[in-house]
Design a protein that fits this description.
7-stranded parallel sheet; Rossmann fold; 5-stranded antiparallel sheet; about 45% helix; 15 helices; alpha/beta; Double Stranded RNA Binding Domain
Length: about 400
C-alpha cells in the first residue's frame, strides 16, 4: 500500500480530471464504475516490463477530496516475486511513492516578466496549490514588448500571470488578446484593457489583493496571484505573500532580469526573512540568454551569485539549461548582443547545494524555456524533497 490520505483542495470531479492528467504520464488509464456518488476510482497500468497496476481512489470529504493510491493485492504479490530486490523494482517503487507528493505539492513562484509567465505555464496543470508572487511595482520602460512563440503578451506582471494560469491553450490566446489590447476610443486611446480591468476591480473591491482574487475568479484561472508589497497591508498575514512562502513545499525563483523582475519582489518587506525561514525546497531557474546589449557575464554562477548574496545563504538547487540552441537563434540573438548562459557547475555550487543541468530550451525563433520540460523538472524535484523529508522524519522517529 502506498501512502494514503492526501487531501486535495478541489471538488471530486476536478480532482478526478487533474489526477487522470497526472497519472496518464506514467501509463494507461482505465476508469472504474463508482460504487458511491462520493467516490471516484481509476486504474493506472504503469509503463513497465512487469505490468504493474495502481488503484487511485478519490473520496469526497469536507475539506475537498481525499486521494489514496494502492496496489491491488494480487498484482502486488506477483510483481514483488518477479522483481524482488532488483534495481528496476527500487526505481519503480520510488516513482510510485512520489505520486501522492506530485498531486499535493504547494508551489510558490517568485519573479516577473516572461520568465515568470513561462514557469507558471509549465506548472499550472501540475499543482492544486500554485501561487505567483509579483512585486506590484510598475516594470518601468521596457525595451521590447514581452512575447512568446505565439506573439505579444500583456506588459504588466499581474496580467501576465492571469494569461499563464488560464485553464486551456485556447483560453490563453483569448486572454492574452484581451488583456494586452490597447483601447482605440478617444477617451481611452492607448490604455491597456488588462490594466484598466484590474484598476476597476480594485476600485470596486477596495484593494489590490481583493481585485486580483476577483480577477482570478472572473477569468477562471488556476492559482493565486499575490503582491509582495501588500505583505504588511490591512489583510494581515493570512493568505498573503509571506504566508504563502512559509507554507510552500517548493519555492521557485523564476528566470528573469535581476533588476526588473527579481529584486523588486525579493526586497519587499519581510520577503527575504520569509525565504530564509521557509522549509520549502528553494530553487533558482537561470535564464537561457543574457539580456540584449548588457554587460552581464554569460554564466549561471553570475545569475545566482547576487541572489544568494541578497538572501544571505545558499539555495537548495539551481536549474540551468544545458541543451543546444539552433543556429538561427544564436545568430539572431548575437546580432542583438545576447548570448547563451553557460552552466558553470563547479562555480555555481558555491551558491547552491545542487546544480541540475537539463535540456530545457524550446524550439522556435525565441530562446525560451520549454514550459512542459521546465514544469516537469520542477515538480519532480519538489516531490523528491517531500519524500526525502518524510523518510527522514520516519527514520528519526
Amino acid at each position: 500500500m502506498i501512502r494514503t490520505g492526501t487531501v486535495l483542495p478541489a471538488t471530486l470531479d476536478q480532482a478526478l480530471h487533474r489526477c487522470i492528467a497526472l497519472a496518464s504520464r506514467f501509463g494507461a488509464i482505465r476508469l472504474r464504475r463508482p460504487d458511491s456518488p462520493d467516490v471516484r476510482e481509476f486504474l493506472l497500468d504503469l509503463d513497465d516490463t512487469f505490468g504493474s497496476r495502481l488503484r487511485w481512489t478519490l473520496k469526497k470529504v469536507a475539506s475537498g477530496t481525499e486521494l489514496s493510491i494502492s496496489r491491488p493485492p494480487g498484482i502486488a504479490r506477483l510483481t514483488n516475486l518477479a522483481r524482488r530486490g532488483s534495481v528496476t523494482d527500487r526505481q519503480l517503487d520510488r516513482r510510485l511513492r512520489l505520486l501522492p507528493h506530485l498531486a499535493s505539492l504547494k508551489i510558490v513562484v517568485i519573479g516577473g516578466g516572461t520568465g515568470l509567465y513561462t514557469t507558471l505555464l509549465g506548472l499550472r496543470d501540475r499543482s492544486w496549490d500554485l501561487t505567483a508572487i509579483i512585486s506590484g511595482l510598475k516594470r518601468g520602460v521596457l525595451r521590447h514588448d514581452p512575447k512568446d512563440q505565439l506573439g505579444l503578451l500583456p506588459q504588466d506582471d499581474a496580467s501576465l500571470c492571469l494569461v499563464a494560469l488560464a485553464p486551456t491553450a485556447e483560453e490563453n490566446v483569448v486572454l492574452r488578446g484581451m488583456l494586452s489590447h490597447r483601447m482605440e476610443s478617444r477617451e481611452w486611446r492607448g490604455a491597456h484593457f488588462g490594466t484598466e480591468l484590474l484598476r476597476a476591480l480594485e476600485e470596486i473591491s477596495g484593494g489590490r489583493r481583493a481585485a486580483l482574487d476577483a480577477a482570478v475568479e472572473l477569468l477562471g484561472v488556476r492559482g493565486r496571484i499575490l503582491v509582495a508589497l501588500d505583505a504588511h497591508g490591512p489583510d494581515g498575514l493570512g493568505g498573503n505573500a509571506l504566508a504563502a512562502v512559509s507554507q510552500a513545499d517548493l519555492i521557485v525563483i523564476a528566470p528573469g532580469h535581476l533588476e526588473f523582475d527579481l529584486i523588486p519582489v525579493l526586497c519587499c518587506p519581510g520577503m527575504i526573512g520569509a525565504l530564509r525561514d521557509s522549509h520549502a525546497l528553494k530553487v533558482v531557474v537561470t535564464k537561457i540568454m543574457t539580456a540584449e546589449g548588457s554587460a552581464e557575464a554569460p554564466l549561471a554562477s553570475q545569475q545566482v551569485s547576487p541572489l544568494a548574496s541578497l538572501i544571505g545563504g545558499r539555495f537548495d538547487a539551481v536549474v540551468a539549461n544545458a541543451g543546444p540552441l539552433s543556429r538561427h537563434q544564436l545568430h539572431t540573438y548575437a546580432a542583438a548582443g545576447s548570448f547563451p548562459i553557460q552552466p558553470d557547475v563547479q562555480e555555481t555550487l558555491r551558491y547552491a547545494r545542487r546544480v541540475m543541468t537539463e535540456q530545457l530550451a524550446a524550439a522556435g525563433d525565441l530562446a525560451r524555456h520549454d514550459p512542459e520540460l521546465l514544469g516537469q523538472c520542477l515538480v519532480e524535484m519538489g516531490a523528491e524533497h517531500l519524500l526525502e523529508a518524510g523518510e527522514a522524519l520516519l527514520a528519526g522517529a
